[in-house]
Amino acid sequence: LTQSYKKDEL
Amino acid sequence: MNIFRLAGDMTHLASVLVLLLKIHTIKSCAGVSLKTQELYAIVFATRYLDIFTSFYSIYNTLMKLIFLGSSFSIVWYMRYHKTVRRTYDREQDTFRHWFLVLPCLLLALLIHEKFTFLEVLWTFSLYLEAVAILPQLVLLQRTRNIDNLTGQYVFLLGGYRGFYILNWIYRYLTEPHFVHWITWIAGLVQTLLYADFFYYYFQSWKNNKKLQLPA
After folding, report:
1. Are B136 and B36 in contact (CB under 8 A)?
2. Which of B26, B70, B163, B214 gives the lowest tally of CB atoms within 10 Å of its CB?
3. What tens digit of pLDDT does each residue of B116-148 get?
4. CA B116 to chain centre
């Protein structure tokens, strides 16, 4: 599974 | 987290608080575009869908709740609060904002990082946020006297994404593989749309005159 883009930004 | 992103989030938070302060204390939303507020409520609703499925930090979740809560309550105030809704100039706020939603949705279906439900909606929220300010800017040009709070609100709202651009540059330089063209281009377009507002806002501040955008 492709590492999902870390959505740590608002 | 870096100082640019923190400054961006605080500026964004300040813009929301200024608007809530204006609406809640003087019970007036004169000069504020309901269309922009509705678009922002959609932006947050489609961007923070992962609030229940992924947790990054207390800060991240708290800020998401604040932005969701404030944007929906502002829409509620402007639509249903008996005193506030009377101060909303419906005749001037005529931008067909639904014409912004569909192209952004189509674009998100065409250009995205991954073709999944959450990712497409998240990308849609980026495109929509870039243009969400248009009804507000159009309304400002029609409203002759822009009150200070509304001017400050738009100024802070425009400034926050500018800080995010600095944050993306910083992260690109410090984190390997941190490349997100979609986010960067949408953020750049969003900030550029404020360019003329920033110019007139700065002029009015420098000459200590009332802010007025040319018709």
Report:
1. yes
2. B214
3. 999 999 999 999 999 999 999 999 999 978 899
4. 25
